[in-house]
Design goal:
Layout (H helix, E strand, L loop, with lengths): L6 H31 L6 H21 L3 H11 L11 H18 L3 H25 L4 E8 L7 H10 E11 L5 E9 L5 H10 L3 E7 L2
Antiparallel strand pairs: 1-3, 1-4, 2-3
Helix pairs in contact: 1-2, 1-4, 1-5, 2-4, 4-5, 6-7
Length: about 220
């Protein structure tokens, strides 16, 4: 037993434990940045996953070390995992890679790089968020609505769009089984305070149904 538990092994175990704790701390910081800059209520399952990912990847990097064979073995083992949850916001994907990269840096014994990068990237994300809050006009919306069967022409909604919208981009256009046409636009309003009037006029139109207006 004494041959098995040696001083070097205890030191290496302590180093691994410290890396896991550091990756946990960095993961918590990443989650705080995500919560501060998220416009909606963050899902606890997603924020918990960011912390778990950061720790697990640091352990994976310790296991791999300098062994290419181990790296390929782990890739093969992890390839059997199938992720069913769709990530709707591209920003969430960025935070996933944020957590993964910091975990990799900690596991690769680049603790200083991981710490500096985590705080620096976090500060930049905060600056971008507050820039949008204070300098953007807050006038971009996603609008979805349906046209009744037989109403394929854009003249149905064009008058309302010309009145309120200064910039538009069609995101999606679908025809349902009921022959109802569903349209999805990203629009910029000439007056952000007039979004209620824009919504009301679309909803009141006799040939437009199921109007939905979201501010991201």
């Amino acid at each position: 037993m004494s041959d098995f538990i040696t001083i070097p092994s205890l030191i290496s175990l302590g180093g691994i434990a410290l890396r896991i704790l550091l990756s946990f701390a960095l993961g918590v910081f990443i989650v705080l940045i995500y919560q501060w800059t998220h416009t909606k209520v963050p899902r606890k399952s997603f924020t918990d996953t960011l912390i778990i990912l950061c720790m697990i990847i640091s352990v994976v990097m310790v296991i791999i070390g300098d062994s290419i064979a181990r790296a390929f073995s782990l890739v093969g083992a992890l390839s059997i995992i199938r992720f069913r949850t769709a990530i709707e916001d591209p920003r969430d994907i960025g935070f996933v890679f944020y957590a993964l990269a910091m975990g990799m840096a900690v596991g690769a014994k680049k603790e200083v790089v991981a710490t500096i990068a985590t705080f620096l990237i976090g500060i930049i994300i905060l600056c971008i968020y507050y820039w949008h809050q204070h300098f953007d006009k807050d006038c971009e919306f996603t609008v979805e609505f349906c046209l009744l069967p037989g109403e394929l022409s854009e003249t149905v909604y064009r008058t309302i769009f010309d009145k309120y919208v200064i910039q538009e981009r069609m995101i999606d256009k679908r025809i349902k089984k009921s022959q109802v046409v569903e349209l999805n636009f990203r629009v910029r309003l000439n007056n952000p305070d007039a979004w209620t009037n824009f919504y009301s006029e679309l909803s009141a139109h006799s040939k437009i149904t199921d109007v939905r207006l979201d501010k991201e």
